[in-house]
Design a protein that fits this description.
Layout lengths: L7 H28 L17 H4 L4 H10 L1 H22 L4 H21 L4 H10 L5 H28 L8 H43 L7 H36 L8 H19 L3
Helix pairs in contact: 1-3, 1-9, 3-4, 4-5, 4-10, 6-7, 7-8, 8-9, 9-10
Amino acid sequence: MNELSFTMFELDQLHESRHERKQHKELMLLYAVFALEPNSIYRNCSPCALGSPHLASMDDTVDKLVVFLAKRDGIDKLVKTFQYVSKLVHWHAEAVHPNIAQRAKQWELASGLSRKAFRTGRFLTGFNALRRNPGATHTFRLLAVFANAGEMVYFFFDHLLWLARVGVLDPGIARRMSFISAFGESVGYVFFIISDFIMIRNGLIAQKKLLQAQKSGADPAPADKEVKEKLRKIWGDRIMRLMAVAANLADLAIALADIEPNPLCNHAVTLGISGLVSAWAGWYRNWPS
């Protein structure tokens, strides 16, 4: 078997473990929000008590929003939306409403600096990913090394860029830090995109085999309910990966504007739409299930 091809069992296990970790994190975040508030009626509850259908089902939109905003990635996507909406407002209002345009520009700059502050220490995420789960095959391990190394360079030099922008470090190094950060970001995105496309391909192969086994009446033939559940998991994983690809391609366009400025990538509309595509794909991926 090709080393890039997962068996149905491996794909199933991968999806289940990711889904279980996500549900556990969301439950613990909900516990932190409800049970640890000083005046909360759930203050003395245990985390298990939040496993009740009312809380654990996460059907309430406000509950989901609270959990989403309790995540660092959640608040980052919200502020990123502010940043690129304000960029488009500034571009649209600059000629006819200079006062509004100036306020929008200040909002954009403040949002950008805030996001850099929120990402403090984020470069450790890539290091921990390599340390804990480098990949199932040699190919995925190699892709993971390049992708996470690029991401670590991006976030580390982004911290230095933030310190230069706020005046802690010499503001003269800001342009150099921005270039190195954007270069590392671009490298990371390229390899993350390749990995996601490989996983999407593997999912399509697994789906095809599953449907063929069902139609051929293999002995033992998979039950309809079991097939539907596996297909649902493959479809869900594919959607998440396509969202990741969309976000990475949009962010790659923004990074290229820093590395090699050009009229297309540096246009306010290109940057604004790319930023919003990335932000909204992140909303979808991080929204509690």
